[in-house]
């Protein structure tokens, strides 16, 4: 696209950080192939790319977590070799990871202290913590224990911890993946402020609208190589997506004339205490899902979605059979196998280790959920031909790419494994499908295949329940969207009414009616 | 230059087969050094250990006799280990099985009880071993007690219980005060296969157990359940398999097999109950299970190999005055190498040179 553009923007200015021909290989695999990137002060620089494009590898090298195999990193014009993250921090490079490293049972201040080098007293540090959090509008109570905090608040701890080292350059890895739209807006204000102070920000994301709004420059990676550096504001979301994916993405289409029929999955006033110390209590959850319908459940991670999945699947049982009704039969007390026999199918969030046994073959993983009701077992003996047939059929129908006919699950890429798992369940012709994060960490092509499959399944009359943190995904496929917050489920909104703003408010815990009443009163 | 251990994309089946052989090779190298340190001629010692027992019929029979309990116990243990349940107490289950079965032999001693005695003994031996194995299993499931500790500690309880019986209530009144029961009656004895030989019916039972385990693990949904619970517990729960039920089941089965091995040993080669009926079969079987890759056929081969070390150890002691404990050292070193070589199934060595010259190592 417009490769020369950033240089004209920064004429005469020296880049704060440069990588020149940065290359990282893992065995035969080239994670980064000769990447050049220039990052200037007073710049929010987006790093765009699909999963596996090499974004994480690149920032890990910049942050000193891994050593590049070749190429160099220059900091303020001078070549540096980082011995580790502490040296990166000492030079003024900070990073906020997507997965937080916080101790749940310690307080905010204790967690921050653990991340610093510990030269100042705890009291001075706490005072500075309060001051930094106030200055940047990142409110935090230093004395609260982390387990009590929301995901957004936890991210604030990580950001404040990084800011307390006064970095010149801050890397953020998909910071909005866990935030409500409103929380994301607050984060953008902080980032704009950092930029105004003359700092540089490297912003990793695959949310294109966000990048167009916030970032001055975007570097796009694909398959470990740099595809382009451009000004995202001069691009369209579609043109950015094309550069990321390297082609057009098929749009998913709902089949016309979808009709909803009888309720196939009903949840009645389901309340369930958590089974682990920091788990979420499910609080009077009710929903009704008819055949032919897709219900989306939005919400920030950790608000009870995992617990709801376990209660629906039967991995956790309810004392009251009537709390979960599958195909008109009270199933709250039934095991996951019995629920499968009633026609339910489940796809958990975690592909490896939950949805599949990683070191077992695909045929064995077909048996994992297929033994209940797919004729793969006769008199206790496994019909190997039937399990292999499921593998072949899933491969063919959902375009699963793999090196041989029946490899281990762990050897497939995330997208292909997810296609296999979703395919395995859909091939059973379920009456009810409960899916958690169907396209999490999956490349755009596979995501489109999976979403289309869910739409087609609903069109064939099944009831589909989709839990997702990706609002765009829910907007694309769901007929109605409800929001989970602190173990409660909001009343579902019809897809047309479920704007980002309204969902965002629900995700932040406000009850919609009060807010809207307040708005109306002000207006 | 740097040597790195690198994860393989898939488990290597070739290495899975070769790794026990590498382990045996490394063990022999280590033993050679050890023999040299002991001041013995390593070549002669190895000859006494591994070659001599294979050269005469008596020793060959004796290898099969020793392998019988090892294989039976190890098959049971492999089911536990595959399911991630760590039964270390097979030695105790072996002893309790021997005690439980012997009870009938002692009570029917000198009566004209019929052919039902031996089958009843075998059955009771298996039940005794299973019940004894259920103690740690239930403690694990109900209270979360580590089955490794409880099953191991119960070995000593069983040992002392047997000791008490043969010194007290079950002692042979005509036995000159030796701590032993009377010789079992012929109806309470496992028949030998060859007239005048040592090979007995138990070896056939062991082969049947191997075949049954191979079918169970390879062909049945129960076997799949055992493997998946051990390999990926959360996926197993998602598949609808109950790990706790499986702990109970695998402990019961492995206890039963250890108990059966115990009563066969007592009613077969030994012929009466006494302390020291096991030279550590229950512990050696742990090595057999791992050396055999937790695979029934592998366990059969490994059991024969370990039996060879027992017989070879005795021959080396007689011929070269090498202490019998060296056999235990040998077995310990072997387990160590087996476990170490196992990491090569999932990982490989790779030599990494700076300047981006990458050379693939073998292994």
From TrEMBL, chain A:
Keywords: ATP-binding, Nucleotide-binding. InterPro entries: AAA+_ATPase, ABC_carbohydrate_import_ATPase, ABC_transporter-like_ATP-bd, ABC_transporter-like_CS, P-loop_NTPase. GO terms for molecular function: ATP binding. SMART domains: AAA. Residues 17-248, 265-511 form the ABC transporter domain. Pfam families: ABC_tran. SUPFAM superfamilies: P-loop containing nucleoside triphosphate hydrolases. Belongs to the ABC transporter superfamily. Involved in beta-(1-->2)glucan export. Transmembrane domains (TMD) form a pore in the inner membrane and the ATP-binding domain (NBD) is responsible for energy generation. This is ABC transporter ATP-binding protein. It comes from Bradyrhizobium iriomotense.
UniProtKB/TrEMBL annotation, chain B:
Keywords: Cell membrane, Membrane, Transmembrane, Transmembrane helix. It is found in: Cell membrane. Its main location: membrane. It holds the Pfam family BPD_transp_2. Coiled coil: none annotated. It is a multi-pass membrane protein. The chain crosses the membrane at residues 12-38, 116-135, 147-166, 199-217, 246-268, 280-308, 329-349. InterPro entries: ABC_transp_permease. PANTHER family: ABC TRANSPORTER, PERMEASE PROTEIN, GUANOSINE ABC TRANSPORTER PERMEASE PROTEIN NUPP. This is ABC transporter permease. It comes from Bradyrhizobium iriomotense.
């Amino acid at each position: 696209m417009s490769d020369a553009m950033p240089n004209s923007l920064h004429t005469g200015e020296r880049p704060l950080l440069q990588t020149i021909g940065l290359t990282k290989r893992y065995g035969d695999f080239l994670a980064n192939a000769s990447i050049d990137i220039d990052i200037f002060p007073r710049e929010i620089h987006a790093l765009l790319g699909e999963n596996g494009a090499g974004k994480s590898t690149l920032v890990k090298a910049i942050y000193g977590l891994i050593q590049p195999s070749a190429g160099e990193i220059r900091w303020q014009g001078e070549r540096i070799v980082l011995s580790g993250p502490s040296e990166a921090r000492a030079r003024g490079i900070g990073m906020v990871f997507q997965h937080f490293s916080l101790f749940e049972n310690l307080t905010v201040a204790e967690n921050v202290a653990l991340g610093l080098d510990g030269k100042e007293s705890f009291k001075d540090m706490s005072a500075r913590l309060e001051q930094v959090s106030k200055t940047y509008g990142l409110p935090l109570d230093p004395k609260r224990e982390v387990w009590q905090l929301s995901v957004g608040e936890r991210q604030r701890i990580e950001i404040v911890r990084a800011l307390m080292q006064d970095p010149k350059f801050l890397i953020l890895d998909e910071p909005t993946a866990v935030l409500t739209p409103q929380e994301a807006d607050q984060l953008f204000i902080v980032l704009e402020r950092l930029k105004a102070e003359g700092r540089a920000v490297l912003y990793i994301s695959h949310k294109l609208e966000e990048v167009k709004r916030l970032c001055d420059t975007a570097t796009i990676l694909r398959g470990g190589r740099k595809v382009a550096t451009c000004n995202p504001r001069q691009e369209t979301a579609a043109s950015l997506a094309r550069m990321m994916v390297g082609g057009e993405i098929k749009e998913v289409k709902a089949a016309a004339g979808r009709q909803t029929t009888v309720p196939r999955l009903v949840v009645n006033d389901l309340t369930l205490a958590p089974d682990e110390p920091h788990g979420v209590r499910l609080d009077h959850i009710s929903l009704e899902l008819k055949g032919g319908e897709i219900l989306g459940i939005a919400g920030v991670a950790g608000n009870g979605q995992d617990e709801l999945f376990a209660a629906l699947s039967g991995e956790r049982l309810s004392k009251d059979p009537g709390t979960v009704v599958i195909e008109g039969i009270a199933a709250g007390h039934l095991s996951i196998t019995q629920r499968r026999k009633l026609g339910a199918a489940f796809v958990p969030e975690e592909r490896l280790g939950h949805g599949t046994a990683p070191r077992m073959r695909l045929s064995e993983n077909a048996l994992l959920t297929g033994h209940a009701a797919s004729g793969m077992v006769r008199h206790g003996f496994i019909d190997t031909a039937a399990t292999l047939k499921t593998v072949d059929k899933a491969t063919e129908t959902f375009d699963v790419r793999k090196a041989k006919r029946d490899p281990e699950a762990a050897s497939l890429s995330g997208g292909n494994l997810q296609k296999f798992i979703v395919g395995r369940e859909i091939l059973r012709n379920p009456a009810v499908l409960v899916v958690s994060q169907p396209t999490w960490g999956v490349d755009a092509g596979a995501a489109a295949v999976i979403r289309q499959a869910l739409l087609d399944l609903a069109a064939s009359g099944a009831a589909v329940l989709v839990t997702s943190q990706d609002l765009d995904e829910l907007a694309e496929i769901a007929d109605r969207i409800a929001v989970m917050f602190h173990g409660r489920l909001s009343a579902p909104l019809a897809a047309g009414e479920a704007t980002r703003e309204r969902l965002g408010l629900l995700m932040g815990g406000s009850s919609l009616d009060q807010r809207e009443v307040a708005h109306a009163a002000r207006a | 230059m740097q040597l790195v251990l690198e994860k393989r994309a898939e488990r290597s089946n070739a290495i899975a087969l070769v790794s026990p052989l590498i382990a045996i090779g490394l063990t022999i190298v280590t033993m050679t050094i050890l023999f040299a340190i002991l001041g013995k001629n390593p070549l002669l010692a190895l000859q006494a250990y591994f070659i001599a027992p294979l050269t005469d019929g008596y020793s060959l029979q004796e290898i099969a006799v020793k392998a019988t309990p090892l294989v039976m116990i190890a098959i049971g243990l492999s089911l536990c280990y595959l399911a991630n349940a760590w039964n270390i107490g097979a030695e105790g289950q072996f002893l309790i099985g021997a005690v439980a079965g012997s009870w009938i032999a002692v009570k029917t001693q000198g009566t004209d009880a019929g052919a039902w005695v031996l089958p009843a003994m075998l059955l009771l031996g298996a039940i005794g071993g299973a019940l004894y194995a259920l103690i740690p299993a239930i403690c694990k499931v109900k209270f979360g007690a580590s089955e490794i500790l409880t099953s191991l500690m119960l070995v000593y309880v069983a040992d002392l219980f047997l000791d008490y019986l043969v010194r007290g209530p079950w002692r042979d009144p005509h036995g000159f005060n030796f701590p032993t029961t009377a010789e079992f009656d012929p109806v309470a004895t496992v028949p030998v296969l060859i007239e005048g030989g040592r090979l007995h019916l138990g070896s056939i039972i062991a082969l049947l157990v191997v075949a049954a385990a191979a079918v169970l693990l390879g062909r049945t949904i129960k076997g799949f359940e055992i493997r998946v619970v051990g390999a990926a517990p959360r996926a197993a729960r998602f598949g609808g398999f109950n790990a706790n039920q499986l702990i109970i089941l695998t402990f019961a089965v492995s206890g039963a097999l250890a108990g059966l091995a115990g009563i066969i040993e007592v009613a077969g080669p030994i012929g009466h109950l006494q302390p020291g009926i096991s030279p550590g079969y229950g512990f050696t079987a742990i090595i057999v299970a791992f050396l055999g890759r937790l695979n029934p056929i592998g366990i059969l081969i490994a059991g024969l190999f370990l039996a060879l070390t027992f017989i070879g150890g005795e021959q080396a002691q007689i011929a070269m005055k090498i202490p019998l404990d060296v056999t235990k050292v040998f077995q310990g070193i072997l387990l160590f190498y087996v476990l170490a070589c196992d990491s090569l199934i999932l990982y490989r060595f790779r030599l990494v040179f700076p300047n981006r010259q990458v050379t693939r190592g073998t292994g």
